[in-house]
Design goal:
The complex is a heterodimer of chains A (114) and B (111). Chain A contains no helices and 12 strands. Chain A has 114 residues and is an all-beta fold. In chain A, the strands form 3 sheets. In chain A, strands 2, 5, 6, 10, 11 and 12 form a 6-stranded mixed beta sheet that branches. In chain A, strands 3-9-8-7 form a 4-stranded antiparallel beta sheet, with no helix packed on it. In chain A, strands 1-4 form a two-stranded antiparallel sheet. In chain A, a hairpin with a 5-residue loop joins β5 and β6. The relative contact order of chain A is 0.33. The mean pLDDT of chain A is 93. Chain B has 111 residues and is mainly β. Chain B is globular, with a radius of gyration of 13 Å. The mean pLDDT of chain B is 93. Classes of the chains: A mainly beta (114), B mainly beta (111). At the A-B interface, β5 and β6 of A face β5, β9 and β10 of B.
Chain lengths: 114, 111
């Protein structure tokens, strides 16, 4: 069975600082990987996705993520955080192979200090 | 843009009431999903549907049922609401099972 782990429940950064949110997965083959963002009281919005090819993927709002097969990781990064980035971030895995479901991590809440 | 619309942003119901949460998507997606989201537990899949009138149980189906009579609409039903069903409910749709598009959520309080 696959799983997704986001080791950090809550992270606080200062505005303008760089950000890295960690995501580790467990799956026997190369999965499809996603990062979603959820602003307070809202649904989830897709930030970026990795299906295959270039292991560094660019997303919306200036985010990027790097797939590292050797570390089973898909960490999300942003060089300079803005106050509006305060939200909860979810990493998710899709195994394909006839499955319809995404497996989500439990989320990392990001707070931004002005 | 894909649009997934949940009929209510906030609902307050009483214990024992029958509750309907409605979700409509406008992109002709085959797959639709209902999740509940609770602090510290992340998103948990309740039910999903891969076609009209087809449904599959997710991880926590107890106390819930679903209906999909038309491709664009997926309803979550709480037959007899209980206080432990107070939660945020999220609907999503997808084609091919990978990228899921989410609605804004319904925050349900059961008193």
């Amino acid at each position: 069975a696959q799983s997704v782990t986001q080791p950090d429940i809550h992270i606080t950064v200062s505005e303008g600082a760089s950000l890295e949110l960690r995501c580790n997965y467990s799956y026997g083959a190369t999965p499809y990987l996603f990062w979603y963002v959820q602003s307070p009281g809202q649904g989830l919005q897709l930030l970026l996705k990795y299906f295959s090819g270039d292991t560094l993927v660019q997303g919306i709002k200036g985010f990027e993520a790097e797939f590292k097969r050797s570390q089973s990781s898909f960490n999300l990064r942003k060089p300079s955080v803005h106050w509006s980035d305060a939200a909860e971030y979810f990493c998710a895995l899709y195994s394909g192979a006839g499955s319809y479901q995404l497996t989500f991590g439990k989320g990392t809440k990001l707070s931004v200090i002005p | 843009d894909v649009k997934v619309t949940q009929s209510s942003r906030y609902l307050v119901k009483r214990t024992g009431e029958k509750v309907f949460l409605e979700c409509v998507q406008d992109m002709d997606h085959e797959n639709m999903f209902w999740y509940r989201q609770d602090p510290g537990l992340g998103l948990r899949l309740i039910y999903f549907s891969y076609d009209v009138k087809m449904k599959e149980k997710g991880d926590i189906p107890e106390g819930y049922s679903v209906s999909r009579e038309k491709k664009e609409r997926f309803s979550l039903i709480l037959e007899s609401a209980s206080t432990n069903q107070t939660s945020m409910y999220l609907c999503a749709s997808s084609v091919g099972g990978n990228i899921q598009y989410f609605g804004a959520g319904t925050r349900l309080s059961v008193l």
